């Protein structure tokens, strides 16, 4: 491509001016006449082709039953559009192309705060304040974790009472997840869904997943930090609502959780809220 031809070197639209996500499933993402298209009914006599405005969206979520061509990946990468392979209803993220953002200010700000022990604990306290509704005076991370753990136990009990579910405590055996009771299984599945949403939010603003302020060891530490901000308002709401529905529904608990998560994510605009929380946590207004 010749430099300057058709003005393509300046055609990329900043993500701040784009729409959010577009969901596609059961078809082929391909390039036709230089444009991104989603082809459905390929094996029928009347296939349907939908042109995808890839420069006007930040991310394409590609659901089950879909394929993508090499040429489509090249076009998405050229225009900085993220693509993620997700589960049914978009509540599990399996893999995603790295987003090449227009700016690095969020990542640089995150690294600046994380690199200073004093400022790192300040951000952690801010995150706990957002979760607990009050600013705690403690500056030791282990003490803050202990306080938060006690609050979470009380929240589990209150949520169970609200939904009329018998609660025997939080129990989870990593070697045998299905051995847990229905409410605990529902919490596990809901946490996975919310973490996938947090991963999309972190990727979309080009924050650094490894640099967490509360979680430290995981390669997705910052993703876990953001997901935890929504534990009470989203994760537990999804989990206990699905556990209650399981009493009268024969569907598996993971399917009920996925459906409930899809509904909550849409109604509460969870991913946009996570993006706002990321900017608030790392104090971009400063």
UniProtKB/TrEMBL annotation:
Q: Which domain of life is it from?
A: Bacteria
* A Pfam family: Cas_Cas1
What this chain does, per the entry, is described as: CRISPR (clustered regularly interspaced short palindromic repeat), is an adaptive immune system that provides protection against mobile genetic elements (viruses, transposable elements and conjugative plasmids). CRISPR clusters contain spacers, sequences complementary to antecedent mobile elements, and target invading nucleic acids. CRISPR clusters are transcribed and processed into CRISPR RNA (crRNA). Acts as a dsDNA endonuclease. Involved in the integration of spacer DNA into the CRISPR cassette.
Question: What is the designated name of this protein?
Answer: CRISPR-associated endonuclease Cas1
What EC number(s) are associated with this protein in UniProt? 3.1.-.-
Q: What are the leading ranks of the lineage?
A: Bacteria, Pseudomonadati, Pseudomonadota, Gammaproteobacteria, sulfur-oxidizing symbionts
Family, per entry = Belongs to the CRISPR-associated endonuclease Cas1 family.
Q: Which GO terms describe its molecular function?
A: DNA binding; DNA endonuclease activity; hydrolase activity; metal ion binding
């Amino acid at each position: 491509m010749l430099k300057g031809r058709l003005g393509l070197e300046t055609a990329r639209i900043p993500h701040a001016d784009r729409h959010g996500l577009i969901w596609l499933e059961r078809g082929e993402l391909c390039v036709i006449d230089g444009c991104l298209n989603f082809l459905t009914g390929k094996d029928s006599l009347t296939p349907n082709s939908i042109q995808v405005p890839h420069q006007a969206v930040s991310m394409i979520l590609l659901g089950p039953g879909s394929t993508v061509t090499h040429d489509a990946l090249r076009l998405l990468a050229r225009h900085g559009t993220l693509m993620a392979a997700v589960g049914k209803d978009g509540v599990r993220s399996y893999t995603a192309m790295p987003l090449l953002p227009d700016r690095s200010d969020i990542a640089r700000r995150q690294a600046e705060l994380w690199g200073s022990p004093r400022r790192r604990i300040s951000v952690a306290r801010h995150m706990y304040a957002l979760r607990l509704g009050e600013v705690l005076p403690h500056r030791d991370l282990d003490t803050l974790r202990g306080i938060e753990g006690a609050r979470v136990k009380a929240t589990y009990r209150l949520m169970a009472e609200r939904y009329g579910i018998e609660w025997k405590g939080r129990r989870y055996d990593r070697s045998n997840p299905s051995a847990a009771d229905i409410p605990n299984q529902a919490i596990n599945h809901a946490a996975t869904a919310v973490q996938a949403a947090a991963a999309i939010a972190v990727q979309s603003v080009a924050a650094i997943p490894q640099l967490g302020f509360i979680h430290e060891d995981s390669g997705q530490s910052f993703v876990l930090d953001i997901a935890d901000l929504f534990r009470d308002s989203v994760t537990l709401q999804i989990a206990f609502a699905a556990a209650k529905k399981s009493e009268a529904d024969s569907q598996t608990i993971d399917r009920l959780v996925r459906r409930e998560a899809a509904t909550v994510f849409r109604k509460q605009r969870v991913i946009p809220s996570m993006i706002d929380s990321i900017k608030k946590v790392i104090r971009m207004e400063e």
